[in-house]
Amino acid sequence: MKIAILGAMREEIEPLLTKIENLTKHEYASNIFYTGTLCGKEIAMAYSKIGKVNAALTATLLIEKFGCQKLLFSGVAGGINEALKIGDLIFGEKLVQHDVDITAFGHPWGFIPESGDFVESDGELNELAKKVASKMGVKIIGGTIATGDQFIASEEKKEWIKNTYKADALEMEGASVGYVCKCLNVPFFVLRAISDTADMDAGFSFEEFLVSSAKVSANFLENMIDEL
Ligand code: 4EZ
What number does the ligand 1 atom closest to the CA of 152 have? Predict the structure, then answer.
């Protein structure tokens, strides 16, 4: 079984990229895909570049072109839930596109006709995450992740996303990846370590903690892959 490992930015996959054995590079669709083995398992890996469209395209290719049968996302996020501090881990149990708006027609925020709103991740992978967390002695929470094509750096926008979607964290790829996986019947897992709290200091905090939080997420994912 081939496993897809996806991040949005180079920093998010770099810690795992250096650990791939029998590494092969594939250039396709204006991006680079890496194949090889990690923890003795066959994997295909890429960073999509930021945003929902890039992430959906890359997830689709990892599944349809590279034949991946499970998909694991690793990266950083802005924290909404007060319990989440910088470097803390969250996995998305439910993910939603917070910037979808056809409320003019009476539809709820985030809803797309014949497509829905929240997408649920794979229960078995989420259970494995809890098991691995207790084995490692680290804290992880399962929660709702809100995804949109905006870097959120305002208390007001963050509060709106919190109230509208009961979200615990926000980022720019998870829900689009989840939606692709749901449509293609591929179990998926979205892991994020907090880099900022999406408030007015978010830009600075993100720059300061991107690398360290990305490492926390990647290291946890490696421990999960070892158990797959
Ligand atoms: C998007 N990612 C941020 C990419 C920022 C700058 C060149 C995660 C993320 C995030 N997304 C961390 N904090 C965030 C925030 N406050 N709002 C949106 O997935 C690229």
Answer: 17
Q: Which atom of ligand 1 is nearest to the CA of 171?
A: 11
Output the pTM of the full model: 0.98
Residue bearing tokens 């949005």: 8
- What ranges in 89-201 are assigned the alpha helix state H? 123-136, 155-165, 174-183
Catalytic residue among 124, 159, 196, 201: 196
pLDDT tens-digit profile, the chain (228 residues):
999 999 999 999 999 999 999 999 999 999 999 999 999 999 999 999 999 999 999 999 999 999 999 999 999 999 999 999 999 999 999 999 999 999 999 999 999 999 999 999 999 999 999 999 999 999 999 999 999 999 999 999 999 999 999 999 999 999 999 999 999 999 999 999 999 999 999 999 999 999 999 999 999 999 999 999
Q: Is 196 marked active-site?
A: yes
The class of domain 2-227 in CATH terms is alpha beta
Q: Choosing from 11, 12, 93, 117, which is the catalytic residue?
A: 12
Q: For this structure, is 12 an active site residue? A: yes
The closest alpha carbon to 4, from 29, 38, 52, belongs to 38
